[in-house]
Amino acid sequence: MKHLFLLLAAFCIVAFSPRISAQTPAPPATPKPFGETEVKRSGKFYVQVYLEENFKGRVFRVPVPSELINDTELKKLGIPNDSIQSMKIPEGVTVTLYDGAGFGGKNHTYTGNVPKLDDMRSITSSLKAQLTPKQ
After folding, report:
1. In a domain, 105, yes or no
2. Among 128, 61, 57, 69, which residue's Cα sits nearest to residue 88?
3. Which of 2, 17, 75, 91 has a C-alpha 20 to 30 A away from that of 110?
């Protein structure tokens, strides 16, 4: 009788114990805030261009490397022609803005964050964003 009781008790413990999975689900990845310019999950870099000075207004992400040869290419990313007024550029990236299509006309090259574009403000018609060669 004692053996039967022990056997019944062992069965109840095994049968009614919660099952623990061998694999524990990974915690969800926390996305980077939209204002950050470097995305480490994919290894890609993005330049963020703003339609107002001091990183205000609508913001658009431009993947690096990119060669946006005219306003049609800018519009594919949602950027209106002649509208860029400030940029956040991640370390190791260079951006050249051109006032003419086809990388023509007046141009200026930028690195780092640019709160005001000054002479290139609201005249950009083409853009190149590239990784800066290591020296």
Report:
1. yes
2. 61
3. 75
Report if residue 16 sits inside a domain: no
Q: How many helices (H) and strands (E) does the chain have?
A: 2, 7
DSSP 21-47: -SSPPPPPPPPPPTT--B-TTTS-EEE
**In sequence order, which residues have a C-beta less than 8 Å from that of residue 70 and are 6 or more positions away?**
101, 102, 125, 126
Residue 17: how many other CB atoms lie within 10 Å: 8
13 domain-assigned: no
What pTM does this model have? 0.68
Radius of gyration of the chain from its Cα atoms, rounded to whole angstroms? 27
For the stretch 46-80, pLDDT in tens is: 999 999 999 999 999 999 999 999 999 999 999 99
